[in-house]
Structure formats: structure tokens, C-alpha cells
Sequence to fold (740 residues):
Amino acid sequence: MTAETGVYHAAEGAVLSNAWLLIALPALGAAILLLGGRRLDKWGHWLGVLMSWAAFAWGALLFFDLLGRSGEERAFQVHLFEWINAGTFSLDAGLLVDPLSIAFVLLVTFVGSLIHVYSVAYMEHDPDRRRFFAYLNLFVASMLLLVLADSYLLLFVGWEGVGLASYLLIGFWNHNPAYATAAKKAFIVNRVGDIGMALAIMAMFTAFGSVTFADVFAGAEAAGETKLTVIGLLLLVGACGKSAQFPLQSWLGDAMAGPTPVSALIHAATMVTAGVYLVVRSMPVYVGAPDAQLAVVIIGAITLTYGAIVGCAKDDIKKALAASTMSQIGYMMLAAGLGPVGAAFAIFHLLTHGFFKAGMFLGAGSVMHGMNDSVNMRTFGRLSGVMKVTWATFLLGWLAILGVPPFSGFWSKDKIIETAFVGDGWRPWVFGLAALLGAAVTAFYMSRLFFMTFHGKDKRWADDAHPHESPALMTIPMVILALGSAFLGLALGVTNALAHWLEPVLGHEEHHEPVLPIPVLMGATLVLVALGVLLAWRMYWNESVPQTAPRGSLLTRAARRDLFQDDVNEGLFMRPGQYLTRTLVFVDNRGVDGAVGGLAALIGGLGGRLRRVQTGLVRSYAASMLAGVVILLGGVLAVRL
Amino acid sequence: MNQIYWIYLAVLLFSIGAATVLVRRNAIVVFMGVELMLNAANLAFVTFARINGNIEGQVIALFVMLVAAAEVVVGLAIIFTIFRTRRSASVDDANLLKY
Fold:
């Protein structure tokens, strides 16, 4: 860690001090679109597109402003307003403009704006297109707040905002109960992670008395390992929820219920990478807590394997891509857990992944657009002839995720694999091999997806399917993203530009040699990737694919069911929870209500019996009065005598 | 003359009055039983005043007579009204006010 980390300059200049416009513009767009109602239906979507591009333009201005300064002076704090002032605790809302947040801002606004454009055509026939764009704008605003916040509490606001936007967009077609359920599932699983996040913020407040990045990072070195480990693990829980990492991964597959642009933007390129951002941003905390770092790496390794296995068995093109997303974010997590050097590669992979995965999701959307919204790859095949642009863009994305040089994925993923092999003892072997084998499995399932959709022996189209190329509004964003998939890695990787760019944030760490020579690792990766592609070619191109899925091996069947993630959650948490609530309801009904109700019934019954005494016969009252007086007098006399 | 006999007389009168109230059904007769009990009490008051040699008992007796006069007016009016509406002066028939 360099001493300069955590020193933020006050914002200067019109561009920097108005950085809040980045968040305000899309937020304004969302507000106008939501409040404007039906009268905006005609042009509302263009307003959404405009706001998103405006945010990108401002982000680009900020980027060039930072570019004009030297490395150590690239961190600016933009004070917004006094937010909380409660006794000894006070917190100002402010934005942090530094190389890391600007990298995210550019990714979110650029990919986001392209997807806005794509959605104009994709959602053309949806009567609620205006509402869709309102949510998209809301998402962009929340995501920018998340990455620009200068304190964990403000980050948490954006964190919840993207969760809300994700929920609204997964359940966008909420007239379908299954989609509404998927939205709720995503929301609830995210709540579990949010509890970790909230606890982490509370722990920070206890340990440092402040929740701003500057104070937390400044105090991190002196705080001691135990505190940092606790905070690091709690932050990891939060990151797992948002980034669909094991064991909170179950929502991502169902999240594909949302419209495809949403899957591309939120559940592939940006929101699900927020967990990686959180871990990388909190690097000073993790540097002081090796155990928490190890936990991050283990979670990453498990998830990348998990996602890769699930991806091999899915016939739903979007769910296969979702499993792939999960696996790739596992790579990023693994890298982020390896310290400052790995973190730079995590961000690198995050950026390239944002491009090629968003591109492939848009490609999947384009395929669905041409195939009557079918997502079953077993009803595709040989679409390359009729959807040439989609095929070409998908091809570039496919080559990028495979890690074929010189495409983007090669530069980022290969670095992660190399970094995973750095270290001593058992760790480099376990994590390195997991990353290496993950790359082979990735090659297999992505090739399977690509071949089943665009190539193969036969066309398995449904009778009423008339595949056609999508309109230009959809293909142009796909082409731009495909160009990014092809060249972004090259541009940033050859000169190691991104690592230098991020160095002021992450700190500098000496480069260590992996346990195996780099050429050997690179060669092994490429050979394994080639083997994966070859296997997929033999199974899904060279042979005809059955229209109904064969029974498959035990592992295939398990992977189709997402390795029983839902069954485990159901058995471990849902059922016991239901039993607990049922028991409590029983105790409440029979025990508490029984005691209260029973007492009332007793008094009531007694009253019912006793009122029979009131006969209405005056003489009987007189008799009882007389008897009472006689008894009282008798008693008095008996005592006196 | 031993003044305790006046007390015995009062007890006797009270018992007759109480028995009348409990046993008879005609409201007028019951009312007379009540008057008898009141006067038995008055007799006891006056006797005790005499025994103790002060006038508090006599004063109370005067009050009782006064209140009894007022009570007779109200009581007779009630009995009269019940008789007019229900064609009966029996206290057992006026048993609507019950459980």
C-alpha cells in the first residue's frame, strides 16, 4: 500500500464539482417518466436514452479531466450536503471521483446507454415501454450512486437502489406469476446479503467511529486483524448476495425472467459486478485481513466451478449465459481476493466481461426476437445463415469469453489464471487449477451454446418460426459491444494501461512469479480451451442435437437443477422456517389465545350462570336481602358474644 | 316499666312486616308491610332515645316519618301505574326486569 491511498483532494473546476449531475440526470429521467404517465408514451423512451447518454458524456468529461492530472492527484471528493448530524456521529453525503469509480462510471453509462438504444427496438411492441425506460434510468442512477459514493452508507443507498431496480425489472412482466416470483426470489436472496452489508457498516462504525472510505481506510492499518477480518467477511456476505456468489447464487438464474436487455445490463454487465467493486474498493480492509481474503478467493473458486458446471447442462440460452456470468464473476472474486495485483485484473476482467457478456446477451435477445421469444436452444440451430450480424457479434463475444488471443477475454482471464498460480503452499495449486479447469469448462459450455444456436447439423426450428435479422437499432449496439469484446482487452492489456490507471487506488504491489512458468500456463490454458471447443464441436456440431433433452448422467441432471441449490435452500431454510412459523402460529392460537380466550370464556360462562339469580321476582330479592341482613347481624353478634 | 319490652314490640312489628312483604302478593299489602317495618324501626329509635336519655333517636324517627311520607307518594304512584297498564297489582306479575 502506498501512503497516498485514501488521501482525497477537494473537487475543483466545474466538471468535477458538478459530478452529481451524473446521478441526477438519469434520476430526473426516471422521475419524469414515472410521474409523466401515459402522455409520455410516444417519446418517453427517447428521453431515457438521452439521459443515459448525457450521463455518459459527463462521465467522459470527468475521465478526461482526471487523465489530465498526474496519478497521485486523481482522487477527488465532491462534497454534496450534510446528510446526517446526530450528536457525535455526523456524515456528509459526498462523491468520490477516482480512477476506480470512473472506470465503473464509463462501463455503466456506456454499456447502459447502448442497451437503452437496443431496448427502444426490443421493447417496441410492449405497451409499458415508458415504464421500462423509467426503471432503466433508475437503475443507472442507483448504480452510479453506488460506485461514486464516498462512504459505505451512501454506497448502501445505491446498493439498495440497484436492488430495487433489479426487482422491478425482473418482475417487469409481473402478470406472469412465475416472473413475479423470480423477482421476489432475487429480492429476498439479496436481503440476506444486505444484512451482511448492514452489519459490516455497523462494525465499521464501532471500530472506526466513521463509515467514510477515507476514515475507514486510514484507520484500517491500526485496527488489528480481528476487526478487519470481521468487517471483511461481512462485506463478503454482502458482495455474495449482490454478485450471485456461492452460497447466495440461487437468484441469478431465475432473474432471467426479466426482459433480455435487463439481463444484459443488470444481470451480466453491471449490477452483479457491484460485489466485486465492493471487495476491490475495500482493498485496504482486506489487505489487513488475510483470512477474509482467503474466504473471498475460496468463494470465487467455488462459484466459478459451480457456474461452469451448471452452464454445461442448461438448454435455456439465457440461463446458460446467466450461469456463465456467475462463473465469470467467480473469476473476478478470486482475483479480487488475491490482493492489489489480482484486484486490478479483477476490474480488467469486469470491464471486458461487461462488454462481451452484454454483447452476447443482446445477441441472445436478438435470437429470441427472431424466434418468437423461444429460449430453448434445442429449437435453434444453424441460425448463422439468417442472422448474420447477430452471428458475427456473438462470434466475437464467444472468442472473447473463450480467451482466444487477441480478443478481450484472453488479456483479462489469462492474467487472472496466472495470478491464481502465484503464492506458496497449497493455495496456488488449488486455486490455479480451479481457474485453469474453469477456463476449459467455460470453453465447452460457451461453444455448446454457440454451436447449438448458430451452427450444427440440422435446423430444429419450430414450424411457426421465421428467423430474421433484428432491426438496426438492435444490431448497432451489438456491433459496438462486439468491437469492444474484440479490442478492449488489446487496448488496455498490451500496455498494462488499466493496472497503471488503478494503481493510485489499489496501491502498488511487486509482481510475483507464478509457481509454473507463464508460457506453460498460457499454453496449458489454450490447449484446454481448444479441447473444450473440440468436445463441444463433436457433440453439438458434428452430431445432430435431439429436440428433447436426453436423460443424461447424474451430474447433468443435477446441473439442470442448478446442483440442487433450490432444494438445499428449501430443505435448510424454507421448510424449517415454515415449520417454525407454523409452530409459533399454533402456540399463539392455542397457547396465548387459548389462555386469554379461555379466561374470557370462563368469566362469561360464570356470568351466564349467575345472572339466572335475577329472576325479576321482587319478593325473592327481598327474601335474600333479609337473609343477608340476618346472616350479617348473626355474624356480628356471634363475634361480639 | 322495663323499656326493653318496647324493643320486643318493635321486633315483633318488624317481623310481622317482613313476613307480610315476603309472603303476600298484593302490592298494596306488601306496601303496608313495608310501612309496618318502618314504624317498627321508628319505635326502636324512640325507645333507644329514651333509654339513652338523648334526642337523636327521636330526631331520626321524625326524619324517617318524613321520608316515609314521600316514599308512600312515589310507591303508590308506581303501584297505580303498574295496575293501570297490566291490570294486576300482584308483585309476582311485575317480573319483566330480569335476566
Observations:
- The interface with chain B takes residues 611-619, 622-623, 626 of chain A (CB under 8 Å).
- The mean pLDDT of chain A is 88.
- Chain A has 25 helices and three strands.
